[in-house]
Model the fold of this input.
Amino acid sequence: MNETRKPRVATVSLAGCFGCHMAILDIDERLVGLMQAVEFDRSPLTDLKTFTRRCDIGIIEGGCCNEENVHVLQDFRRNCDVLIALGQCAIMGGLPAMRNAIMQSDAPLRECLEEAYITGAYIRNTTHQIPNDPALPLLLDRVYPCSEVVEIDYQIPGCAPGGDIIFETLSSILAGRFHGFSRDSFKFD
Amino acid sequence: MAEPRLIEISPVTRVEGHGKVTIHLDAQNRVEEARLHIVEFRGFERFIRGRLLWEVPVIVQRLCGICPVSHHLAAAKAMDMICGVDVLPPTAEKMRRLMHYGQVMQSHGCTSSTSPRRTCCSASARRPSSATSSR
Done:
């Protein structure tokens, strides 16, 4: 990375819950240092909706459950040198991928839509229609992890990842000395 | 005379993020219809079926990472109903309140005075008029 300018970082939430973006805020006061060390481009943190310039690092939260997610992810791959999948949804599809594993069903997606909009106990939908406005992005047959759609350079696991691990990983990648996570940094019991 | 037009606002930035508004204008540039679209569909309603009762509060936290506590408590209430609990022990009641106050503090402490407050799904759910399309 060129030392004469600040590294540029872009972030996005695809089929995620924004918990990983909240986890970025969990780096607490170190955020001030990070804001001085890097420049945020397209990100919910800046409200920029498109890339203004090519970025050094793209941070992806969430997997792909609709066509729009795929397009945004491909846009990030085109515009970022390094892509980081942040959190379980981006890495493996996460909880939304539970819809891939609905047993004894020929059409899990249809079952999900019908439960949500027609047959659910507290649904009042007199037209019995599933939303089909052309403005809605087409849902994919299953939920895909980011690495099945584009090449991903780094993965930070966790649901959501802890603030410490996000900060350590980001700063070591920025410094060009990331050599994997220490065993101590993960403790899931 | 102008053609009917469609104005698209996407994403809507002052909610949690996965929203889109389309405004349909007629040939006289009058608003015919305004629609709020929730573009993220994940199917929690279906895939929590068949899970163990006590897993569900933790699963539904992932509906929204900004207001996970609201979803956790809603599922806890559903668990109460399923088990036929109508009176909570005082400690449980206080713990739930404490959790919720903690979330309110976290949500409101994170946004600076210079930026308008973002709302998340629990906030919009309390105001159904802002969450449904107006015709």
Observations:
- The longest strand of chain B covers residues 31-38.
- Chain B has two domains: 1-41, 43-128.
- Chain B touches chain A through 30 residues (CB under 8 Å).
- Residues 111-116, 122-135 of chain B have pLDDT under 50 and may be disordered.
